[in-house]
Design brief:
Layout lengths: L23 H5 L7 E6 L5 E7 L2 H7 L3 H6 L2 H9 L2 E6 L3 H15 L14 E5 L9 E3 L8 E6 L2 H14 L12 H5 L14 H15 L4 H16 L3 H18 L16 H12 L7 E8 L7 E8 L2 E2 L5 E4 L8 H23 L1 H5 L5 H7 L11 E5 L2 H13 L7 E5 L4 E3 L7 E2 L5 H32 L9 H11 L2 H6 L2 H5 L6 H13 L1
Parallel strand pairs: 7-11, 11-12
Antiparallel strand pairs: 1-2, 1-3, 4-5, 4-6, 7-8, 8-9, 8-10, 12-13, 13-14
Helix pairs in contact: 6-10, 9-10, 11-16, 12-15
Length: 527
């Protein structure tokens, strides 16, 4: 990813990125040929444009080609004149780039972006199981109302076509509310295999469950059948039918393909934790059930704050008292491998230190394998090592984490990597990843802990971002130097508390006189 730690600032007014403008034509050659988003910045570090691309290298390089610049419109030329540097962020698919583009545009409000600035959200599909005849409806927001939600979806048109397909294929009601109308009861659209008028609400719910599984991504078999129909239509020279099926397949793939979320979401509850733990132990051939699992995730959507999370599951459910969050200290820019190594090293070196302090003899007599020493003593329950470590990522993240464990003497501690795109499980010493069935309890358990680690890391990232934005308001206040800003924040704790302070309270701060206190009070009241 093309990003360095000193250029990703959140404040509307930032210090210059560097005195000399980087050679952007040279930097373009380091951009990967992958889908993602790119951010253009001015010399003050402000984001002035956010864009998405199917191929980042091609899209970004096109901005700096003389032939393209010569025919560019006035808006593009003005933007390019202001560009001082850029950065890119890769994602897994074009749909994800659209989701991330919208998120970043809403965050930064770049002056040269027009779309996405009306705060519209991507569509989600809602179905309420408490209704007698549940319907699949479109919504803009997810609510904690007991309903099931699917999405968000980047392609609204494809989503509507998918709902049309579901209506015919599964015989489920879409849009509207309440029990089926007289027209819907008689319609042949809902005849799968019997019309709505011939079934009861309980039988209809079976259709709803099938449609819900389809939206969750269990659609390979159905898509394969449609592909066969398309090929048969083409062989019969029925190209109109083949084109119709091709378009339908494209819409279905866009809608039902699992997509990474760039928004916070609620962790689904575990249906059968004990069963899932047993399934996981069987799948990974673990010596015993992974009663305690710890999962690590790196959040580097920006480079101002690269953060990490460690979430703990005990007996298959979240153990939130043992969650941990980290700010990456030793890594420059965006380097997932090095960041993963740092956080794993910090986590388990601290666990070993706590264990040594609690019982130095047990660890001292087992320097080669501290795992056995820790597990052999009941005194280490509070700082016990996990039965399984999970890192969010593939071979690179797994190798980086495992190397740190070996340096700490934790050679036998079970560890795996879970790669998002195809939900592949990487294991030490195994060249090929393990693929579990979509309905596997073991996979669902791994997905839950991975998604929770991702949510927790993003929540911490957003917390730091909001704090940074709040503090940066003072950067624009006349007469407030960096030193005075630090003095004010040290006394009041936050800009929010400073807003509530009186002029006299502000003036009592060391280095802040009456006149400047009045200016600060007035500035915060109007900004």
């Amino acid at each position: 990813m093309m990003a360095t730690s000193h250029i990703f600032e959140y404040s509307p007014s930032c210090v210059p990125l560097s005195k000399e403008k980087p050679d952007l034509n040279k930097k373009v050659h380091e951009v990967p040929h992958k889908p993602g988003v790119y951010l253009m910045r001015d010399r003050f570090g402000r984001v002035i444009y956010v864009g998405k691309a199917r191929d980042l290298r091609k899209r970004v390089s096109s901005y700096f080609m003389p032939s393209k610049i010569a025919v560019a419109d006035l808006k593009t030329r003005a933007m390019l004149d202001a560009v001082w540097d850029f950065e890119t962020h890769t994602v897994a698919s074009e749909a994800e780039s659209l989701l991330l583009e919208g998120k970043l545009i809403k965050e930064y409000r770049p002056r040269y972006n027009v779309s996405f600035r009306d705060d519209k959200r991507f569509l989600v599909v809602k179905v309420d199981p408490t209704e007698e005849w549940p319907r699949f409806r479109l919504a803009r927001f997810k609510k904690d109302d007991g309903a099931r939600y699917f999405g968000p979806y980047a392609h609204a048109g494809a989503l509507r076509q998918t709902l049309n397909f579901m209506r015919k294929k599964f015989g489920v009601l879409t849009f509207g509310r309440g029990a089926p109308t007289e027209r819907e009861l008689k319609s042949s659209t809902y005849q799968v295999p019997m019309r709505l008028s011939e079934i009861d609400a309980a039988t209809y719910r079976e259709r709803v469950n099938q449609a819900a599984e389809f939206l969750e991504g269990h659609s390979r078999e159905m898509i394969a059948t449609l592909e066969q129909e398309m090929q048969k239509a083409a062989e019969k020279l029925d190209f109109e039918k083949a084109a119709e099926l091709r378009n339908m397949l494209e819409d279905l793939r866009r809608t039902t393909k699992p997509t990474r979320r760039f928004t916070r979401h609620t962790l689904p509850s575990t249906i059968d934790p004990e069963s899932d733990l047993q399934a996981l132990a069987d799948a990974l051939q673990l010596p015993h059930l992974a009663r305690v699992m710890e999962c690590f995730d790196i959040s580097n959507i920006s480079t101002t704050h690269v953060v990490a999370s460690m979430v703990s599951f005990r007996d298959g459910v979240p153990d939130k008292n043992n969650y941990r969050r980290y700010r990456i200290r030793t890594v420059e820019g965006q380097d997932d491998f090095a960041s993963m190594a740092e956080v794993v090293r910090r986590r388990y070196s601290r666990v070993l230190l706590q264990a040594r302090e609690a019982n130095p003899e047990a660890v001292e007599f087992s320097q080669e394998n501290p795992v056995e020493a820790l597990r052999a003593s009941g005194k280490f329950v509070a700082v016990r090592l996990p039965d399984l470590i999970i890192v969010d990522g593939g071979k690179g993240q797994l190798s980086s984490a495992r190397r740190e464990l070996q340096r700490l003497g934790l050679h036998d501690l079970p560890i795996i990597g879970l790669a998002k795109e195809f939900e592949e499980i990487y294991r030490p010493g195994r060249a090929l990843p393990l693929r579990l069935p979509d309905d596997s309890g073991a996979l669902r358990l791994l997905q839950r802990i991975r998604d929770e680690a991702h949510r927790f890391a993003n929540a911490y990232h957003q917390l730091l971002m909001k704090k940074r934005i709040g503090e940066s308001i003072l950067d624009d206040c006349p007469g407030v130097s960096q030193n005075r800003k630090n003095l004010l924040l040290r006394k009041f704790g936050s800009v929010q508390r400073l807003r509530k302070a009186s002029v006299e309270e502000i003036a009592s701060t060391e280095g802040i006189g009456q006149k400047l206190a009045e200016d600060v009070h007035r500035f915060l009241a109007t900004h």
